[in-house]
Request: fold
Amino acid sequence: MSIATARRSRLADQIPLVRVPPHQRIVLANGVAVVVMPRPEIPLIAFSAILRGGVMGDPPGKTGLASLTAGLLERGAGARDFLAFAQTVEGAGGSFLAAAGHEAISVGGQFLSHDQDLLLSLLADALTTPRFEPAELELLRARQIEQIKALKDSDPSELLPSYGRALLFGEHLYGRSVIGSEASLARITHADVVSYAAREIGANRLTLIFVGDLDASALIDSATRLFGTWRRAPSPALPVPEPPLLPGRRVLLVDAPDSTQAYFWIGSRGVDKQFPQRAALDIANTLFGGRFTSMLNSELRMKSGLSYDAKSGFARGSKSGEFSIRSYAETDKAVQAIDLTLGTLAHLKRQGVTREQLESSQTYLLGQFPLGLETSADWAAALGEIELYHLGLPYIEGYGPALRQVRLADAARVIRQVFPDPDDIAMVLIGDAARLREAARRYGTVAEMKLTDPEFFWQVVVPAR
Reply:
């Protein structure tokens, strides 16, 4: 064992393991789950409300409905219109934000401890009596459409996942853009929002999480009073089907005329939240594309100077999400950058990682993991993840020990089983199609659409000429 390896091993052993602080969980008669974790160190209460469903409840052709509905939850509720609601939150020095995901709508934020009753009142109003004012819907929808257009104009790389997931997953839930598209957002009506809320929002889909300097008994009593008689949604959230596994290469070229940069996304189906070899996979991905000194960033940025950023990661849901690689290069260097990316992936598949690399990644992750669980807001988010995906406390408490137990054979196994073969990937290229079209054909069957097209979905693409 080298001196550096021995030092890393000692350092890893000194990093304390994470324990979940004591907390309570109760379920009200109507199905609302309430989780309370006292942490009196700082006079704040963080909260997270998880409503199962999310984008899963968007009707065909109206992706973005869950996102708009979530946005409206913070734009007026109960006796307060949008301005009064926002001023009440701001006046208390609090925060209150709602957003949609593929499998849930989440509402979160934090308030000072002495505003515990106000927090509960605002949250109850937002979830049980949202105003859904038509004028606010119009403003929110216009802003969301303009945000998409602005990204297309200024930073289309931010839209790579929307195109990539649509290409990779097609009509499956995970192929839908959470934010919607210009076209789908324009089709959404006020009646759609009201119908979505009646169908997808209710007590039996809700988990409330409160963490911080709180009076647990009083909070549970107040939550029972405010939410205990709330109506149930007509049905529980549907289970997510396993997404399809589509072999072979597929390429989508998104034409951005005169662009001097080419942005690329390379993806394949990955794993779900319950994947048992999570620690080994995280170690392998950290080495491949998950930190600044990763293989990808070393090859594309530090050694070749082709790109300023290259990264990889896994998006994990209740079913297998995507593994993806993202980077960019000048248009005339795009082929070189893509070839180097695929070559680095092939090298990982062929050679794996060394013992020294593995131990470096172990130490890095063991040090980073506790840093993500320092604040009450961190714990509210972590408990929300556990609740949404039915993970159990070992998902947190067992992660550190699992990291320490990973061996070279474990890393080799997940690299072989989970990381894709370079010939079995979906690829999105955003750039000047006139300069990239011939090069794109090197990587597989090419379909093409315009960056200005108002959809992200693969159904609208046409074969490249």
DSSP finds 18 helices and 13 strands in the chain. Confidence is low (pLDDT under 50) at residues 460-465. Residues 77 and 126 are 5 Å apart (CA to CA).
